[in-house]
């Protein structure tokens, strides 16, 4: 996208978005779902905030199970955002896979819509990689195989995620991958082309999304590109095209300008580089399907961590 001309004074650069939940907003102590068999949630700590949503823990009064309650404004001013929420809920509700955040239900009370999601208490891959700098090969293999498994499931059901990135990939209590945030997801047959209005996050964006030439709309291979970016980022600690400005990121990814910096402490085997390179192919048609990726030699050439405990959020596992 073309950068917008800088017309506004600095102080007004970030106008408050009326569709965004206020930072200071707190939910009531308990939330009772409307309906014939209502469920009451005791609201707990804030889990995080996104572009539009705020997420809190909510403990079910019936079962004592804790969920993540994502709160968004029930009435948003921008029509596009309303569509985004609707698509997100419709698509997410149909996804049932061990590596996809389970969507339980959604309901509206007053000005807020609550989305009840499976709780992922260990944050996202972004935080883990930030703390650890980079992850070990057995960990990366475990996470990548789970990510590919979840994405394969979506693609089989004609769903493209379109916003796969470390920040949308959460960890459950047993350090299993849970892919979340279906806010940009689309069903493949969808004629509507939303590339100009909604497009992933600069670091993870596939080149065909940037080029205005193709009019057929992007296919599921945009997710394959993002999978390559994620794998590189876990191995190296930062995305491959990381730069100061969005323009620089775009120019680097268009020419596949990335490198594997040699470091005595961080050995990257050729199979891992091949895995990433196969995903980061400028020609989307040549990128592998998830079926091929899960068979990649990267997964068979070395150990896969079969269990991880939460200490690995902070430290390299002791068995390494
Ligand atoms: P948005 O759609 O506004 O971007 P997100 O889906 O990214 O909102 O959620 C906002 C934040 O809430 C996330 O960054 C994360 O910290 C937290 N969060 C979201 N879903 C869960 C979940 N299932 N379990 C735990 N925390 C979550």
Automatic annotation (TrEMBL):
Any single GO BP term: mitotic spindle organization
Q: Which domain of life does this protein belong to?
A: Eukaryota
Q: Where is the Protein kinase domain?
A: 41-299
The UniProt record gives the binding positions of ATP as 70
Q: What ranges does the record give for the region Disordered, renumbered to this chain?
A: 1-42
* UniProt GO MF annotations: ATP binding; protein serine/threonine kinase activity
Q: What keywords are assigned to this protein?
A: ATP-binding, Kinase, Nucleotide-binding, Serine/threonine-protein kinase, Transferase
Q: How is this protein annotated for GO cellular component?
A: cytoplasm; kinetochore; nucleus; spindle pole; spindle pole body
Compositional bias segments (type: Basic and acidic residues)? 3-26
Protein name (record): PLK protein kinase
Q: Which organism is it from?
A: Capronia coronata CBS 617.96
